[in-house]
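Researcher: Here's the sequence for the chain we discussed earlier.
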Amino acid sequence: MNQPVKQNRRTVLSACAIAAITWIANLPTTTLADTWPSKPVKVIVNFPPGGAADQIARAVTVPLQQALGQPVVVENKAGAGGNIGGEAVAKSPADGYTLLMSSGGMVSINPAIYPKMAFDPVRDLIPVAAAARVLVFLEVKPTLPVNNIQEFIAHVKANPGKLTYGTPGNGSSPHLAGEMFKDQAKAFSVHVPYRGAAPAMQDLLGGQIDYMFDPGIGLNHVRAGKLKLLAIGSPKRSPLFPDVPTLDEAGLRGFDADTFFGFYAPAGMAPEIVTRLNQEINKILSTPAFKERIASLGAEPAPMTPAAFGAKAQDDAKRFGKLIRERNIKGD
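Model: Thanks. This is the structure I predict for it:
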């Protein structure tokens, strides 16, 4: 009597186990990317409000929150050439709820100009998505007695050390553009670093500094006649100002101070989330609304894979490294 009972019990248990396995196998599969995000996402911009990084971030985050179904909140943490905001993100949980919007310079340039950093941007951050290729525009205050790039170069050479130029900070792309200009033009002017492009622009408009390599935030002032635009620090002319020459055309051969702004995340973030964010951001970059918004900065959409974005930062590190060493550029 006991043996048949035991066999029946085993048969029933086996059947239940098979049924359970079959039920589990037929459950709909979900991934982390399917359940993320379940709460607001924070984007830290490592430069002050009003600058190129801030404006690009906001041009992306508004449609991004619609795509993700959760609020995407921008928070500005400026200082130390972007290092303060970069460190805040690098030391955040890698759960997909804290991202960084930065110029590529924080990853490719800062390690060369800051001997001691509280984090390693290459090791502690991962590229998520490029957003825009940002050009720099050589603009001067309207009272400067020059009307074209040739006159400007001659004026700077004739007045060594008497002119000042502002930048968003040491090691920023406008700063490197200024150093490239001085190096190639064989001229000298005084560098005035600010905590972001917006305060530098205010002083240029106010006449406290003489010129600036503008990452695009002053173009409306150029159109209004409040600033003179003399040249583009890019390998090609800007479609917004097709009659304005590049510095390469003005004789500074190979002049290229363009940089790529984009999104980063703490190292270790799930690949599914990186892929989801990259896909959503790349979709946004192709929309007319985004193109129109960043066109006001003279910038261009720059959709890339995370790998391509990371490789671009490595190329920029090599490209600018020689200039940094030769000009002995140091962080704030």
